[in-house]
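Here is a typical protein record:
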Amino acid sequence: MPLLDVTDAGTWTTSLAPDADLRTDVPSYRVWEHGRLVDEPADVRAYWRSDLVSFLIGCSFTFEGALAGAGVPLRHVAQGRNVSMYVTDRACRPAGRLHGPMVVSMRPVPAELVPVARRISGLLPAVHGAPVHAGDPAALGIRDLDRPDFGDAVEAEPGDVPVFWACGVTPQAAVMASRPPFAITHAPGRMFVTDVRDERYRISV
């Protein structure tokens, strides 16, 4: 995961948005116990503990403005839907006892614009960067694009190719697989918005 900030234990602030509160300023949370989802509150102050460390990771929504600016249509935005997200058959490299599969987000892209989408998103590696795959979803172990594991099904247009990016829901798949005693995450598609401008994460080539 592209790591942008790590907080001190018990701290609910981040340098990415100094006036924000990580306990209240995420649109929707998920609370996990031993890998099981136990609550989806809008405020986690009641769950907060002094030993909690927050990891803020980049999100592929960040590069969508750049994609749109380059003429790449965002089908899920036009359809008023959350992006489609799928659990793949690709195992992430374990970190100690933590392990799990890679989750990807999918955006249908006109075939002639796939190179543009790859180039534009590749300039923002801190927010997932270039796609991990384009084309046949079966190559990632995805059986049915109409049945995403998270988010909404998005309708493709004729000539579209499914393009897949690594997704920030991957840690939640790791929580489900590794079953740590306790964790709090954002709900899929309901991320924390920082004060940092998108352009800060763009690299020059």
In short: The beta strands are 3-6, 29-33, 36-39, 55-57, 84-91, 101-110, 133-134, 160-166, 183-186. The mean pLDDT is 96. Residues 114 and 163 are 8 Å apart (CA to CA). Helices lie at 64-69, 75-78, 114-122, 170-178.
